[in-house]
Structure formats: C-alpha cells, structure tokens
Input
Amino acid sequence: MYSNLSLIMLRICGTLLLFVALAPVGHLQAQPAPNYTSTVTPDQGTVGTAFTFSFDGWGDSEDYIDYWVIGPGALDNFEEGQFDNEPDAEGRTTWTWTAPSGVWNGTWTMHARGLKNYLTTSISFEIVGAPPLPGIESGVTPSSGGPGTLFRFYTDAWPKGDPVDVWVLPPNSDEPFALEKLYGAPNAEGYTTWSWEASPNVWGGTWTMNARGEYSDIFVQIPFFIDAPPPEQPYATVSPTSGAPGTPLDFFANGFEAGEEIAAWINAPGSDTPVASAGIEEVFADGDGEVRWQWTIPADAEAGAWSATLAGRDSFVEWQVAFTVLDSSGTPTGETGPFIEINPAAAPAGTTFSFTARGYGEKEQLQFWLSDPQGATLTEGEVTTRVELSGIATWEWPSPPYAMVGEWTVHVIGTRNRIQTQATFRVTERNAEAPGGGVSQDVANPGTTLSFYAEGFRRDERVSWWVTDPRRRVYPGEVEINAGSDQRIEWTWAVPTDAAAGDWQMIAKGVESNIQRIIPFTVTHDEVAPSLPDPSPISVEVIPSVGAPGDTFTFGVTGLVSSERMGYWATDPNGIIYATEEQLIVAQDGSLEWTWTAPDDAPPGDWLMTIQSSPVDEVVSNIQVSIPFTIRQR
Output
C-alpha cells in the first residue's frame, strides 16, 4: 500500500523519535550564559587619542570582525570597517581606533560583531576637549548671483546622520523660507552639501543660509549676495502726532503707484462715519509713489484718539495713521480708542502669543499683521477675525523657533471705521526648559525604570528623545515616536546601573515643530549626595549687544561650576574662528566675566562668543555656552 520511499521515511522518523525518548532529561537543561569581558584603554581622550579595545568572547572561532563607531546623539555610524580576528593565547581579541578630527565631546560607543556567530560587544568611551565649532568650514558657490541663480552650500559641521533644520533669511529679516530637513552626510571631502535656487522675482541684498544640527546643536550661517533691486520699505507717518484744534498735521505715505489717485479721510473717536470738511479731498501720488498731504484739526474737534486713512485707487495700498487731538489745556480727554492686550508680554521664540483687541464695534471685522524688530511685515500673520458682541476679538500667533529676538509689533485695523491700533511684545532667546512634561518619580537609583510623558506637540508628529547626565553627556534614546491625537507621547527609560549621581535631564523634541520639553530628575546612590551641582540655569549677558569693529565687548555668564577653567573663542558671520589661548577661571559664585575687542577689520553681521570647559582640570563639566552679539559697520 505504501511506496518504497514512504516506508524509508517512516523508518527514519521512528528512529529519531526513539533517540529523543531515550535522551537523558538532564541534557535539556539551559546552560548559563558565558561571562565575557571587554575593556578600553584609555577610557577618555581627546582628538588624536588611540583607544585600545579588547574582548574575550570570539576566541579563534571567528576569522573577521565587523566594527562601527557611533557618536553621542547620532543615529548613524560615524565610522565602520572590518579587521582580522587575531586572538592572543588567552583568547582575547585586541584592536585600536584613533579619534580623528571632526569628533565631538561626549560618550561614544565602539560596537564590534563576529561574522559567523554574530556575537556583539559594545564598549563606551569618552572624548573631551574637542570644541565643535573651531575648524568648521562652510561656504557657498557662487557667493553672489542674480534672480534664478542656483546656490550650492557646503559645510563640514555635522556628524553623519545628524538631522539638520535649514532656513533662508532675506536681507530685511522678513519671514524665513524654511527648507526641507536634511541630514549630515559628509562626502569624501567631509562636506555635507545642499542647494537653493533664488526665485526670478527675488529682491536683492545679503541673504543668509541658516542651519542647525538637532543632536550636535552646531549652528551654521552662510551669507550670500543676490544682485537685484532691494525690497521696498513702505511706511506712513504724521507730524506732529498730537495737537490742539487749529494745529496743521502733515501726513506722508509711500508704496503707491506713480501718479495714482489717493482717497483720504479722517475718523473721529468712536465714529464709523468719516469726517467731512473742506480739508479732506482726493490727492495724487507723485512719480515715486509718495503722498504728502496736510490737514488742519477743526476748531470744534473732539479731544481723543483720531485716525487718518490714505488709500490708493489702483494699487489698493492703504495706510491708517493714528493721532491725538488735545483739549485747550493740551491734554487728551474722552474715549481713548481701541487697544490691544498681549499675553505673554515677553517670551522665548517658539511661544504662542495671545492677542485681545478691545474697543471696536460689535461684530466688526478686524485684520491684523505682525512686524519684526526690523520693521519687516509677516504676511502670514494677515488673517481676519470677528469681534464678539462685547467688541472684543481674540486670536493667537505661534511664533516660529527661528523668530528674531527683539521687539515685535502687532497691528490691527477695523474694516468698518478703519481705525488702526498697535501694540508691542518681545521675543527673547529660546528657553529650552518648558512646561509640558513629567516623570513618574523625580528621584531614582540606578536600575530604576522611569515613566515619562511630554505634550504640546503636533498631532501625529514624530518626536525624538535623549538623556543627558550631570556632565551633559548624551545618552541617545528612541526616535520617531508619533504623538497621538492628544499631542502627547509616553515612554519609559531604565536608569543605567552605572549612572552617575546628580541631576539628569530627559529631553523630547518634535521633529517638525521643534517644540522641546526638558524633564529634570535626580539619580542618587542611596545615601550618596549628587556628585555635581545642577549645571542649570545658565544665564548670559553681553554689553553692548551691538557694536562696531574695534569696540570692546564685556561678556558675562552665571550658573557655571566654581573654579573651573574655561576656554573661549569668537566666530564671525562667515564661520571663521577667532581663537585665543587665554584660560578663564570661574568665580566661587559660578560667574564668569571677560572682555574681548573686535578686530578693526571685523566683518559686519551676527557673531558668536563661545566658552567651553577646559580638559586640563580633573573635574570637567563639559559645558559649552554661546553668546550672540552683532557687529555693524561704522
């Protein structure tokens, strides 16, 4: 009934079952995992240090070993390769790796794996005394060109795999043009390259390509010149801005078409109907698109907040200028007119500012826009909203992470009576520490698993996270955790068994929004106090913040480790380093102050003064702080 092949297979299976049944039970017990050891000598070094690694797990069972090195905060391999396995008499394999130029401070990891059994070892070591900024090269080809030019940029700033945010800043610091995120990808010469094409209608002047590595935090600015007419800077004024009845007011506005007919009207306090008088008439722009127009305050004018409107018939350019009518005693009385409340009044870039306009009519439609510290208008802020029955309108503006530091202005105009008002607020330096996160316990021992949460990201946004220890060494974490519909992420992290005692930080950052949350916690060794003081907060100051070539700047930093030695250097707008061999010593209260005189030929633009922990001390906090300042032409 069975074929010869079937009978043979049945006999083989029966024999195998018999062998299994007769096998001693004790042979099936799990064997203990082998206890392999690995070492590195030295465990800390600078650029040029030859690190010697060893591992006793491969023995003579492997012919070749793959290795790869990953730097702190990086996702991709910094270097990779293969070597012959040549174990010594005790079965230990030894190999070396020399830290090349281009490495950065922090904890690095050497990974090595046998090609046959895939047995892998990971050995950590530390690189110190290698400030990331000195030696950075960057540039653009061509350095100048007209509209439509393709500009090619290059730099050796970022390690392989470092995510980089890129944006272009126009000459008048208008809204930046955000480019697609790129990643550190050094070519054979060590440069990461990318390009940007100027549009045909781009305006002229000195532009700036800006880019910042997410993990390395290395910031690069590359200026380039576009040979084209500069942008128009229209504006409108009135002089004087206040006066009693009978006072002549001189109005000026530009930005109109040449010879264009201009409509002009005046609104009194609380009036939706323009004032009609012999002093209000249609005027015309001159050949340069400018209008000069005079109006005398009537003898019966009500004291309070007034406004004048100048509107182009063809260009639709419209200006509203506020002025105040005084009473006979020289003081304003009566209704003060609409006003704007801003919350917060000052906050770091990336903050969402809330605006409330009061004093407009019921259900009146409003339009608002923003202008940066240099007066450039943010067109993306132009939206309309309706006020409530109470005459109140509210809206928000999420300031971008790259918003210019300084005094901003919000402008509001009502579409019914054309009354315009404005208010100012300040964008300050970005503050990494922000609310919106927490940890299950803020004090833990090594080996403890902590639960974290962070919120306020965009829906479905990818969020990366990493950890820093008391010496600010980076422990890379997971990447691309997607925020949920509640704009929140949750994750866990086990404190390493060899974690140093002190103040740690868990950092989560939105990949698209750049929203960052810092969650502090403390690692203790039972009764052992933290080994290092909290390195935060660190505050900086420079006087003056804007100067000229040859000026002396005074820099100050607080929140440092007392008695620590610090080196410093300056970086100009072109990325050129102005190094110094001077060593500074932090005062007992953690403060540091020094002066630096700008060279007589210092190029104008945005500069950075950087201080870095010196590796000559036994205790190095590995702190690096950069202070921005500006040098202008005399």
Q: What stands out?
A: The longest helix spans residues 4-22. The helical segments are 4-22. The CA atoms of residues 164 and 586 lie 33 Å apart.
